[in-house]
Each structure stands twice: as C-alpha cells, then as structure tokens.
Write a structure and sequence with these properties.
Elements lengths: L1 E4 L7 E3 H38 L5 H18 L7 H40 L4 H12 L2 H17 L4
Antiparallel strand pairs: 1-2
C-alpha cells in the first residue's frame, strides 16, 4: 500500500515498511554513536591512567577523568534493549503496519469473493454491467440519485435521445 507520510524535519516516506525501516536505521545509528562514545570514554580513562603512571598528570586528575568517563559511558552507552519510549513507539508502529497488512489481505479476499459473485451472475445470464450500476445506485442517497437521474434525463432530451 502506497501512502506518503510527511513528518516535520524528515524526508517523506511512501510505504509503512519504509517507515519501519527508517525508524530501525535511526535507532541503530544512534546506538552505534552511543557505543562509540562509550568506547571513546573508556579510551580516555585508560589514556589518563597511562599518563598518570608516567607522571605526566596527577593521579587525582586521572581518577577524575576516569569518574567523568564512567559517568558519560553509563549515561550514553546503549543498553541491550532500546529505551522504553523508543521500544513502545517501535512496537506500536509495527503493530499498526501488521494491522494494515492484515486488513489489506482481507480486502483482497473480499474483492476476490465479489468478483466470483459477478462471474456466477454472468454464468446465470445476468448482465454484469447492469448489476454493477444497480449496486452503485443503491449506495447513493435517494435524493442524490433522483437528482442525477433528472439531470441525465434533461441532457438526453436536449440531445433528442428520448
């Protein structure tokens, strides 16, 4: 099913699958960035310890660097699971897509059934075009249908068809 979804600040998305793929890619990209930040903080702490061992900086400065690096890593390092709000949004989007896909499948099944009924009617000698017209007309509001018939009759008289 093609649907264009326009979110502020984002490129338009044309299918639900594309939207889910984009959300997944963005989550993976964010987790990679967080992982790199955590690795960088770990490297910074190790480097500070090496510098303290060589006497380039004080042990207190190395310890402070280690505390800061640990705090930053814990705050920004990705967890094994997504954040609860992100996980909820991702699960909700997936559920919506699955519902739409299920409804599309049901719509296709119903369409096939309707086509089979028309084929059966044709096999029994009924005019399918007339049946479709009657079905369309029965869907209309009676006043709307009367107005359409009046206009059609007026045009046919003007053309000398009546």
């Amino acid at each position: 099913m093609d649907v264009t979804i326009n979110a502020p600040g984002c490129e338009p998305v044309h299918t639900m699958t594309e939207a889910l793929e984009r959300v997944t890619r963005d989550l993976e990209r964010r987790n990679r960035s967080r992982r790199r930040l955590g690795e960088g903080m770990s490297d910074a702490a190790s480097l500070a310890n090496e510098m303290a061992a060589e006497g380039l900086i004080s042990p207190e400065a190395a310890a402070e660097t280690g505390r800061i690096a640990k705090a930053v890593s814990e705050k920004f390092a990705p967890t094994l699971q997504d954040e609860p709000a992100t996980r909820f949004a991702k699960d909700q989007l997936k559920a919506i897509i699955e519902r739409i896909e299920r409804l599309e499948e049901e719509k296709k099944t119903i369409s096939d059934d309707i086509r089979d009924v028309y084929a059966e009617a044709k096999g029994n000698g009924f005019d399918v075009k007339a049946l479709r017209t009657i079905v369309r007309m029965r869907k209309q509001d009676p006043n709307e249908r009367a107005e359409e018939e009046t206009i059609l009759e007026t045009y046919m008289q003007a053309l000398g068809m009546l």
